Amino acid sequence: MNRIQLYQGDITEMHVDAIVNAANKNLLGGGGVDGAIHRVAGPKLLEECTKLKGCETGQAKITLAYRLPCRFVIHTVGPVWHGGEIGEPKQLASAYQSSLKLAKEHQLKTVAFPNISTGVYAFPKQLAAEIAIGTVRNFLKDDDSFEEITFCVYDDENYEIYEKLLTQKD
Ligand code: AR6
Question: SS3 sequence, the chain?
């Protein structure tokens, strides 16, 4: 069975164990998917995030999901794209890896990822998708606990990129 799925839509509507938030280092909300998640979850999410004291790039932290239909939110911080020569690809892979590790530690079975860093942080979409898919596939190779990992894409460009990559190698 293929445990990697592609879905186009709003991640805040997903009924999974955890959605991943493309946050920033202070974890106090922002625009893009982060803003949408906080808006739907309500003020208690910000209250819990305030206690986390931020998060380093490539790392991840977990909270409850409050008014969201999922159970948990995994907040990770992707890199800001500065041209690719200062470790951005590794940091992006680490954001996906840390999120999956944390989900596994919490015995979560279904996780949905947005396209981390490809919005405000300007990471090139094609390269970001290759890293995201490669990292998740690699993690699943040595794992039999996850049931489904979904790439939740929002825009048509990312949808086309993911569809192509996922059908190419599957
Ligand atoms: N559901 C799914 N994906 C979404 C949604 C949504 N509701 N809204 C946007 N996207 P971005 P980043 C997609 O900018 O680049 C924030 O201010 C969007 O189309 O949200 O990692 C944080 O606080 C894009 O493909 O995150 C940080 O400061 C993807 O989500 C900073 O932006 C990521 O775009 C993080 O930048």
Answer: CCCEEEEECCHHHCCCCEEEEEECCCCCCCCHHHHHHHHHHCHHHHHHHHCCCCCCCCCEEEEECCCCCCCEEEEEECCCCCCCCCCHHHHHHHHHHHHHHHHHHCCCCEEEECCCCCCCCCCCHHHHHHHHHHHHHHHHHCCCCCCEEEEEECCHHHHHHHHHHHHHHC
